[in-house]
Amino acid sequence: MGATTYDVIVIGAGPVGENVADRVVQGGLSAAVVEREPVGGECSYWGLHADQGAAAQRGGASGGPPGARRA
User: I want to staple 24 with a disulfide (CB 3.0 to 4.6 A). Which of 3, 31, 40, 49 is the partner?
Assistant: First the structure.
């Protein structure tokens, strides 16, 4: 696997992390988001919906969006 360079690395893909990464990219920089949990779904607020907690106990709802992988 080759090395990739980013202008900004965002730790956490929650609501703030998503917002920061979006603004960085809109500003013309590259960004990588690092998250320990699967990313994706309808709502990025962890535990906001009861089904998110149940999905986490089963190992994740959908495994994340296409192209995502677990670290």
Answer: 31
22-34 pLDDT, tens digit per residue, is: 999 999 999 999 9
Please report where in the chains the tokens 């988001």 appear, as a residue.
33
Question: Can you give the pLDDT at residue 71?
Answer: 47
| Burial label, 3 (beta-carbon count in 10 A; 0-12, 13-18, 19+) | exposed
| Joined tokens for residue 23 | 């603004």
- 50-58: long-range contacts (C-beta < 8 A, 24 or more apart)? none
Q: Which position has the token pair 């906001």? A: 48
| All residues at 6 or more sequence positions from 21 whose CB lies less than 8 Å from its CB, including other chains | 8, 10, 13, 31, 33
